[in-house]
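Next up, a chain.

===
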Amino acid sequence: MFLPQRTKDGFPKNLGDTGAHPLASGIVTWVPQEWQDFQLLYGKSEEFKRWYKQMWQNQGKYQIPSHGQSVTTPKWGKFVNTGNDLQTRAFLKIVKDSSEKSAAAAFDEFVRQWKSSGGEAASAEMSDKLASIYKE
C-alpha cells in the first residue's frame, strides 16, 4: 500500500492500480505511449477521454526533451547491480511503510548506503562522461 497522503487526488492506492488517476502508476512500463493510451482509454466515455487528455497535457507542460545514448563507465558498470538492489529493497520498504517519518528515514538510509557502496563515485564518473559527450 502507498502511504495515505500519496493517494490524495485520485492517485493509486496499490502498486499496479491506476485507481482514478491513470497517469499515475507505481510501476514504469517501457511501451509506446500510444499503446498505453489505447489501453487506458478503450471503452471509456468521451468525458473521460477529454479529462485524460487534459491531465496528460498538464503533466507534460513542464517536461523538457531528453536525448540519450547507451553509455556506461567502468565504475558505473561495476555499481549498477548493487545500486539496483539497494533501490529495489529500499523502495519496497518505503511504499509499504506505516508512517511518513519512517519512510523518510528509510529513504535517507538508502541514500547513505547508495553513496557509500560506490554510487557517489560511479555517478560522478558517469556525469563526467555524459558532460564530455553532450558539451553545451
About this structure: Residues 74-133 form one domain. The two ends are 43 Å apart (CA to CA). The first helix runs from residue 33 to 41.
